[in-house]
Methionine synthase reductase
Amino acid sequence: MCCESKRRFLLLYATQKGQAKAIAEEIWQQAGAHGFEADMHCISEMDKYNLETEKDPVVIVISTTGTGEPPDTARKFVKKIQDKALPPDHFAHLQYGLLGLGDSEYMFFCNGGRTVDRRLQELGAQHFYDTGLADDCVGLELVADPWIDGLWLALKEALQLQKEKEGMNNAVSPGLSSLSTAPRAVHELKLSSEVQNLKLEDEGARGSDTLSQKVGDINLVAPAKDTKPSLVHSVPPVSQSALNIPALPPEYIEVEFQDTLGENPHLSSLISEGTTFEVPVIRAVQLTREDAIKTALLLELDIADTAFEYQPGDAFCVICPNNVSEVEELLHLLGLSEKGDDFICVKVKRGTKKKGASRPQHIPERSTVKFILTWCLEIRAIPKKAFLRALVECTSDVGEKRRLQELCSRQGASDYIHFIRDSNVCLLDLLHAFPSCKPSLSLLIEHLPKLQARSYSVSSSNLYQPGRLCFVFNVVEFPAGPSRPVSRKGVCTGWLAELVASLLHASKNSLDTQGESSLIEKISIFPRPNNAFHLPVDPSVPFIMVGPGTGISPFIGFLQHRQKLREQHTDWEFGETWLFFGCRHQDRDYLFKQLRCFLENGTLTHLKVCFSRDSSTAEVAPPKYVQDVLRICAKEVARVLLKERGYFYVCGDKKHMADDVSDAIVDILSVEMEADKLEAMKVLAMLRETKRYLQDVWS
């Protein structure tokens, strides 16, 4: 191979939070070791590649965002390929392999990748390698790593086939040839991957570093008294294995401290999603009692002097900072306590080996160290394996170094999932657990993702409350654990709760008080419209709302809007409305007792509530969960959905509620239609497809 020029393939990525880009960069790094040259571009850079004329294989890594949409960087590309005027053989010349990223906690798993994959197939493109669908719920690497392992042989087969076809002067149909070799290639790749796992001593497998540890070194990591593994200790077989670890990511960022003063950038410059609005928080109310398990807050924003527009059911994003004490702690651990307010210049390192290296868009060229750690980097992010690999080089203690190597290795995959991913470990936790690890600020800028704005459902109607926007949230709590020495609050919810503490104190005496304080706090927000989760266009259509806990939030906006429409249009016909609400305790966390008002004025036709933790002395125990109440109302639910073509809305927790509600609806449809479950599932799928069964859920 040393005599041959490296064989090219086109590598495209479409990312929302940086994960697809990181995986594409890993493919790019490994390509050279396998004799390939990856021509890598963001899928949005359509001036740098042309699929219409592309002759070499194409590899696409694409994530999913929102309610199953392709990431923002892929919108123009998707719009272009979805042009209905394109002929069915438009991409007949194209061979591609696609890796989709998603989260099975959400309904439209990997839908961004599936959308592109399906459309390319419709336009005649052929797979040279099976599509991979990686699940962030269990760990992207469980699919991504073996998918990358198998990619190289598939590419070799595809390029060899291409060479043969050119030699035969296109005598063989490219579509049939690609299809006929793909299954064989994939089968061989899976076998090859298994062989590689058996030969851990083979240097260069997957372009990774192979490490051998002596028994003496292993004892430093896992003393005999430790019979169970932990974040800092391993046990056999991991502690005694030679390790396959990822290749060291090339450094590409340089930080230069400056003596001059200046001003930090405005927050709006950090947001690429559109216009931001700085608005005052004019009211804050605690909706739960002090002894409730969760603390729910309602905040009211004044948007009267802005161009911010929304509909009930929409969401919006809050730009939030990292916790002040965590930033100070990180500065201390980095040895930068005295330099937090110093200005730095961030630029690309000269001579870097990273292809197309550029300063991350979310990092200003010039700002203070503290500004970057507070507003730009997600310091709570779960460290990726590439980051762990880089941290190895910053660690002086032999035992700590070995453990970090294990955690990013293939052999330590289970430990990584259990002690880092599932334990929600962040950089601070790692630096406490591995005190000899001293990373540079430039390394953090290279590996920590952008601090994401947090999304919330609107809980008001601009028709009912002009110039006002309300939202409801639980203050998220992360308890201390073996891998996390201290408890923490959610990045945004904890900050908001602290920000409005004075307003909360002022509103303790009455829910109706404006809770005004002499100091008006402001937050920066930007809209994130929901394309589907809206009231039916026809007001005569009935609808059902299911929203336990803070899942009730958008439905308050629905009901406020409906009440105002009823007042303004007395001659209109309005369909019936159902609301199913649930919480733990009636007297502690019944968030909106004023729902009775909507019931009394006719805006709400039926209100069904349940309380999961309240004890009952009744002979027949009352239902505990919303799905139980739905089953009790089975005939009415089926009537609304099947006979009256109504809408069904679900908002709230995905794992512990939305899936159970979906199962309940399948059962209801099956019984009421006198059909088997498969037929009922098809009806539910039809309801989803026609946007009559809608979800706004989170995990």
Remarks:
- The radius of gyration is 28 Å.
